[in-house]
């Protein structure tokens, strides 16, 4: 144990003292936020306003077909239809001509069939869909009016039905839209965090082992400590590095949230524009939304969520880090690691992408089995926990993961013991199996 502690301490201090660790830890959240803003900016930058001339022979759409930031409708007289069609190819600033035929005998199906959009350039699928949707809404309104239904009655028809549900087991009301959204968001954040940390720091363990093996430093170290102690020291050291970085990011997130909340409160009182701006802010009250979100989070079993997250994160990380350590010891360069790392990445990806279905049905069979299989449970169980999981399932899943982690450490130690001193011999699956059986 003393040797494992010393190696863990050395590995931890070596990693946290690197400039790359400090820079990435401090700038990581900023870079991720910046990347998200960049993606949003790219989507925004690719948007454009399409302008269409509209020939409305039916008279239904004049005054009802409204322009938006995405699409601008310009109504033109029907007598100009032929000239507009003839000159459409050479028009600048006009993307197309929408021709709507006459409405005969309230035959809306014929009107829809004979309507056409002539374009002089390629338009996006969203633009075409938006035009069709705008026309469909107006036609729907006219159909309802023809039935003698008033505008107020139409609004009543479109009202949503709120169904109040209550669970007779725990005597709690079912989640509303905001509550479900908060829990889904929390599940995705926790799940993605575990996935990324296992991949990033698992690869770091593998590269550390591979680097010492290639530099022949490991030959000197092995003379003083056992291979198992060296492997466990590296895994635990990098585990502490991951936890350190994770705690720093959580602290930065909490401070940032408090700062933004305080800053918005001060900004709200200084916004110019009179009553119009005040009404706009009141309609979109960030403080109220933040308060509701906080209430939803606090209403959860926070201690259980944190406990389950820590247990499955640590066990899952040690499980996969043992696998990465074995891979690093079995190969001579990073190129050869590619044929083995897929054994670690694919199960995690199956667990992560399969967990998206868990959010719609947390108690479904897929969610249950993904949270029980040790290869996927570190991700799947964390995705389920915000929605509530029976205690017996948590205990069973954690027990299976613990046993599997100990088994993986045992297998990885056998591979590590032989592979760490092997040079120039390309390891194959058959070769690894011999090392494990030896």
Explain this structure.
There is one protein chain. This protein is mainly α and 438 residues long. Helix content is 68%, strand content 6%. The strands form two sheets. The protein has a four-stranded mixed sheet with strand order 2-1-3-4, sandwiched between helices. The chain has a two-stranded antiparallel sheet with strand order 5-6. Strand 5 (166-167) and strand 6 form a beta hairpin. The longest helix has 42 residues, at 227-268. Residues 266-284 have low confidence and may be disordered.
In total, how many beta strands? 6
Strand percentage: 5-15%
Please give the count of helices: 17
Task: Choose one word for the global shape.
Answer: elongated
| Rg, Å, rounded | 31 Å
pLDDT < 50 runs, ≥5 residues? 266-284
State the helical fraction. Answer: 55-70%
Name the helix and strand elements from N-terminus to C-terminus, one letter apiece. HHEEHEHEHHEEHHHHHHHHHHH
* Gap between N and C termini: 25 Å
Q: Give the overall average pLDDT.
A: 76
Characterize the main sheet: 4 strands, mixed
- Order of strands in the sheet with most strands: 2-1-3-4
Structural class: mainly alpha
